[in-house]
Amino acid sequence: MAKEVGKEYTFSLWDGKVIVRPKLDMKYLYIEITSRCNLKCEMCFKQYWEDEEGDMDWELFLKILDDAEEFPNLKMIYFGGIGEPSVHPRFMDMVREVKRRGFALGMSTNGTLLTDDMLGEFAKLGVDLVYFSMDTVPTAQNAITLGHIAAAVTADKIRKLVKYREEYGTHRPSIGVEVVVTKENYRELPELARYLLDLGVDSMLVSNLLPLTEEQTKDIVYDGSVDMKPILEELYKVAHNGLYIKLPYFELKTERQCEFDENNVAVVRWDGEVAPCYRFLHSYYEYIFGRKKKVNAYSFGNVREKSLAEIWTSEKYTWFRFTMKNYMYPSCTDCPLVDACDFVKTSDVDCWGNEPSCADCLWARRIVQCPIPQHNFGKFY
């Protein structure tokens, strides 16, 4: 059971009142230990945001771990955000410290900077989950392009990590691969899934492209321009052979389900700002079905100034989570007034007064996906 904190907030809701009692019920804590990266992927937020880059300092990192111990239901600490964690100068010290304290640890990485010693230590320490980024099958024919060279390097790291975890006999870490689908690579998704299964990968997380430039809007496959049905049928066949595949929607649906909210996630940026999800971690422009929108970073507090528990149970963050969990916000994406509405120009506030606004979020539509771990049969996926 989540720990009660003794607070109680009363909110007005139309003609009634809502009483919300916050709990220390965070399940996943994402830490952006750095916002720097060694690669310059064209579809990544980092190429287009307005924010400065930086590394989390060691003292702040230790304070966050201290604060995390107040949450009795915390399932995992995850090195994520928008950056490559292994570029942090104390990356392995951070890995060791999380495991020393007994937390489950996951991370997202492009894998290119991970050495044999690092991979071996992942298996020895029992790192629980590693998601690698790979959007194509590395072959001799296409290895001359930068993307395929990176994929070949990543595949080699996965192969070695599989070997190391077999040597330790714990099947840790669970290995996943994140794939971003575009018009350029959607046809090879089944081939990539079979390739990953042969490598020894446990799970494949498929996400759609969130365009960050007008040019990228031509590359999406969820606007009706591509028939994904035969691709999905082939992916289901691979899944039956043992690869866990998590798929997004490839069309706009009425249903909304925010996995960050449903799984009680908080994200701490490299400088200590606490955001509710990846979307509000930095400031940038996104394109929602071709419509340009400014997303501004949003923080509920900084862990340099307050404890994580104080921020999590604050009135504003508590109300935000309650609102999101009950989907008490408008649906801008398919609203008939969307082309004439000023609220959709930014994420700052929506026409129901929610701040920040999730009313245009493609994550909540399950079109865009991020690695929210699932724990099944002793493994994280």
TrEMBL record:
It comes from Thermococcus eurythermalis. The keyword Manganese does not apply. Keywords: 4Fe-4S, Iron, Iron-sulfur, Metal-binding, S-adenosyl-L-methionine. The keyword Ribonucleoprotein does not apply. This is Aldehyde:ferredoxin oxidoreductase. NCBIfam families: W_rSAM_matur (TIGR04317). Residues 23-243 form the Radical SAM core domain. Its cofactor is [4Fe-4S] cluster. GO terms for molecular function: 4 iron, 4 sulfur cluster binding; catalytic activity; metal ion binding. It comes from the Archaea. InterPro entries: 4Fe4S-binding_SPASM_dom (IPR023885), AdoMet-like_SPASM_containing (IPR034391), Aldolase_TIM (IPR013785), Elp3/MiaA/NifB-like_rSAM (IPR006638), PqqE-like (IPR017200), Radical_SAM_PqqE_MftC-like (IPR050377), rSAM (IPR007197), rSAM_sf (IPR058240).
